[in-house]
Amino acid sequence: MPKCIIDGKEVEFTPGQNLIEVARTAGVEIPYFCYHPGMSVVAQCRMCAVEVEKMPKLQTACSMAPTDGMVVKTKSEKTLKNQKAVMEFLLVNHPLDCPVCDQSGECDLQDHSFKHGDAYMRTTEDRRTYIDLDMGPVIQKNMNRCIHCTRCIRFGDEIAGIHEMVAVKRGNNTEITTIDGKQLQTQYAGNYADICPTGSLTIKDFRFKKRVWFLKKTPTVCEGCSRGCNIELHQDADVIYRTVPRTNMEVNKYWICDEGRFNYQYVHDADRVITPAVRTGGTLEMSIWKEAVTAARETLKGKKVAVLVGSDLTQEEGKLLLDFSSKQWAGSQAFHFGTPGITSAAQDTPEDKILRRTSKTSNLQGLEKLGYKGFTSLPHGVEAVVVFRGGRAVVPEVKGIPVVGVGVFNRKDTENYAAVLPGQSFAEKDGTVVNFEGREQKIKRAIRAPRECKGLSEVLMMWSNL
Amino acid sequence: MLVKSKPGLFQRFYVVEILKGLAITMRKFFFGKTVTIQYPEERREYSDRFRGMHYIKSVNGVENCTACMLCPTVCPAECIHIEAGERPDKEKYPVKFEIDSLRCCFCGMCEEACPKDAIKLSNIYEMSQTSREVYDKKFLMEQRGHK
After folding, report:
1. pTM (whole model) above 0.90
2. How close is the nearest chain B Cα to the Cα of A214, in Å?
3. Is residue B72 part of a domain?
4. CATH number of the domain to which B121 belongs
5. Residue A71 domain-assigned (yes or no)
6. Which of A141, A429, A462, B77 is most deeply packed, by most CB within 10 A?
7. What is the count of structural domains for chain A?
8. Which of A39, A67, A91 lies at the terminal end of a domain, its last residue?
9. Each residue's pLDDT tens digit, A385-430
């Protein structure tokens, strides 16, 4: 393997890597703004310029391929002077509104300014300002904070496959905007905020909700579709505030779609059933576990039962239900349900060329592996239905026969239910899900469930013993 | 080697020592300077750096605070609770700003962290209440008359 020398350390590299990546393997951090490993290299910000021996001028590390025996100095006087100059240039026009900005705490510009910048300013001129147009429901724009790294333009062109961001005018007056001031069309708009190195593009949903340094991060897997994108749930005091993508080159690379990003919202929905409930006299009334379980058991007693299992449940829960239902309700049949119109993994197709898939639940493949059949219509002679749901699957309409729901339900879904036993959503439990390729991934508990919401094993324990 | 002197019979009566001590007490009591004051009528001068009751500084009735959350971040007693919001004349402002003065330890770190010179500790030290209410934003802004 070829070797180069970075800051006196000998580093092995594979041809094709650039200097930033190679330096990172050696533990040397080269600051950069416009470079992003998932997109093309433009070498625009000049922040990553480093000194290379036998080259007269500084070379940008992002566009520099190391060669055998190359000697790179990232801490030399020339390099540091350049970094300081670049920081000063960028901060000429950057407003000092870190107290207001949502990006502060995870802002590249803030970090690099702290590390490489100067505490004092030499300019006295006014900063340039812009009037911002609305960019749609996902992204909040603040052009004043922009440093023209053009990451967002490249993201649209290269990843999202839609050319919607452009840079107009030149030099100091450059403005990054959508074409004709239109709203963003892509279903991956949230990533614009993730890749933005400053607070120029931020997420509207997260706006002013929480400062980022208060958030605790849990690595988990998205349950939005059968892709199983790796995500991080950010929570504080058992409230989820946002979802950000987690890098996994084999599944989702650096991105997630907006549907997955905002999927967590049902967890804190005011209409979510979070106490056991029993239907008395036409309305679903709050109850206690003992009464609700008794009522649910009475509903299904001695009847021919169909078990509907949402394909948003984990493998562990699926297996548990398979064993439980065959013992508890003799002669019952178990089906999986999830997305209307999709009853088997074969029908799960890519929705676009990026990440999204048509099966809108996370574990369709897994439940099929366990031996569940897809739900099309109720078999003849079924007298009662019990529905297990993780919060994402769309419950098929069942009419005329009593229904018992176990899991996460919205009050709207439960209009004809005899009893509801509240369960835990994907953010509140541990488990395994299988994505469309058969890849098994772990979901992790990020927050505690509301007090009365119990895990499936506990519910089934009560069901058989209470 | 430790040598203990044994007190004689006269010394063991202590009468002389007691009288000596009493003389000092009497001298201080009748002729010394008094250290206490008649509190509600008389008040002491405190230094300008005294850390008393909090207030939010405002200019023309608009609070300086932008809800940047640096004060709850540094607060060691975790007694500050802020909720941020947006309104037409101000991009970010505190919808809620509450200080639980019962938890506060008056360290003044919030004042030091504040980038907008918004939260301050005043000279007011009379903070006894008959209820356990927290200071809300309205109270914090008005308790010194928008100053």
Report:
1. no
2. 8
3. yes
4. 3.30.70.3270
5. yes
6. A141
7. 3
8. A91
9. 999 998 888 888 888 888 999 999 998 888 888 999 999 999 999 9
What residues in A contact B115, CB-CB < 8 Å? Answer: 98-99
CB atoms under 10 Å from CB of A3, counted, come to 12
Is there a contact between A208 and B85 if contact means CB atoms under 8 Å apart? yes
Query: Which residues on B lie below 8 Å from A99 (Cβ)?
Result: 66, 68, 70, 92, 115-116
Helices (H), ranges, A184-309: 190-195, 258-261, 289-300
Residues 301-360 of A with CB under 8 A from B: none
By residue range, what is the domain housing residue A454?
Answer: 277-465
User: Length of chain B, please?
Assistant: 147
Residue among A258, A232, A233 at smallest CA distance from A354:
A258
For A298-428, list the strands marked E by DSSP: 305-310, 333-337, 373-374, 384-389, 403-407, 417-422
- Answer yes or no: is B14 within a domain: no
**A160 and A34 co-located in one domain:** no
- Contact list, A105 vs chain B (CB under 8 Å): none
Q: Does B67 touch chain A (CB under 8 A)?
A: yes
Q: What is the ipTM of this complex?
A: 0.81
Which segments of A159-214 does DSSP mark as H helices, in order? 190-195
What count of CB pairs under 8 Å joins A to B? 27
Angstrom distance (rounded) from CA A317 to CA A414: 22
Q: Does residue B105 fall inside a structural domain?
A: yes
Same-domain status, A282 and A416: yes
Mean pLDDT of A359-384: 87
DSSP β-bridge partners for residue A48:
none
CB-CB neighbors (< 8 A) of A211 in chain B:
68-69, 73
